[in-house]
Amino acid sequence: MEKTRFLIDTYIRPDEAFHFARKSLATRYPERAHDHDCFEVFLIESGRTEHWINGVTQALEPGQLVFIRPHDVHAFKANRKTGCQIINVMFRTDTASHLATRYESAIGKRFFDASSDLPEMHTLGPARFARAVDVSMQLQTAQRDLARIEEFLLVLTNRVAHATSGVTKAAPKWFSEACSAAQSPDVFRLGAKGFIAAAGRSQEHVCRTCKTVLGVTPTEFINQIRIEHAAQLLRSDEASIDEIIQSCGFENTGYFYRLFRRQYDTTPRVFRTRHQRDPFQSTASQQ
Fold first, then answer.
1. Measured between alpha carbons, how far is 40 from 36 in angstroms, rounded to an integer?
2. Nearest in space to 196 (alpha carbons), one of 181, 185, 184
3. pLDDT at 125
4. Sequence-ordered list of residues with C-beta below 8 angstroms from that of 272, at least 6 positions apart, any chain
5. How would residue 169 be classed by pLDDT, with cut points 50, 70 and 90?
């Protein structure tokens, strides 16, 4: 696909630090894909889209957050039945450079500073998805200054997209990409075998690398993600506990309860009550 270049100065004034857009995507690809002279973060808010990126086609759904770098070449085609609405934020390269340098331990070689072939993508659970929409929409009416875009990016990378994995920048590229893929329900519902398949390496090699990089086994790593996802659903979803257990890929209810108590030091039912408690009702009236 031929390409053109999007220039941030055609979207914002010299004294502005970022551009915000909330838009519906066209249902067919544009004549040309595009790259940028800036960085871009986009969030799929509703519907579905095909995302052509660096020669690869991805199917994106609500809750998927992507950190686009200047050299990434991409284009969108929304699903004809569902359409697709995205939230898009573009910001200058010097902002990215400043944050990657100042916060190297948290951001360096990750998010918009990633050096992988494809840009880093995060599939957000319900609670993080809602938080991502909220912090993004705050930019819509905000002053287009450095303070607001830096605040937004720090929240996004440390409070929204921060991976459960704890993968360090010293990890092999294939392992970091597998850990990112493991945030997707399609992967973690399959347990350790889903993670190993995403890694594309032998079980022994993945187990050895996982233990070296994270200090845990693939099963322990995936279970941390599954339990965190369950906790997000318990905070924000009305599904029954049994339905949540099933949606996280657990076949043994007792096993799920043991893991949940180990991670949160309480039962799923008490956890849900505590986090969905009506703030206008006294504790005594809810007991």
1. 8
2. 181
3. 66
4. 234, 235, 241
5. very low
Query: What per-residue confidence (pLDDT) applies to 237?
Result: 72
* Burial class for 230, CB neighbours closer than 10 Å (0-12, 13-18, 19+): buried
Check: CB of residue 29 under 8 Å from CB of residue 75: yes
In order of 28, 86, 121, the CA distances from 77 in angstroms are 5, 12, 18
Count of domains for the chain = 2
At 47 the three-state DSSP class reads strand
For 245, counting Cβ atoms within 10 Å of its Cβ (0-12 exposed, 13-18 middle, 19+ buried), the class is buried
Nearest to residue 193, comparing CAs of 209, 208, 182, 177? 182
Torsion of Cα atoms, 148 then 152 then 153 then 154, to 10°: 100
In a domain, 168, yes or no: no
- CATH number of residue 271's parent domain: 1.10.10.60
Amino acid code (one letter) for 248: C
| Confidence (pLDDT) at 280 | 56
- pLDDT given for residue 5 in this prediction: 96
Residue 187 structural domain: 173-275
Secondary-structure percent of the chain, ordered helix, strand, coil, rounded to 5: 45, 20, 35
Higher pLDDT, 174 or 68: 68
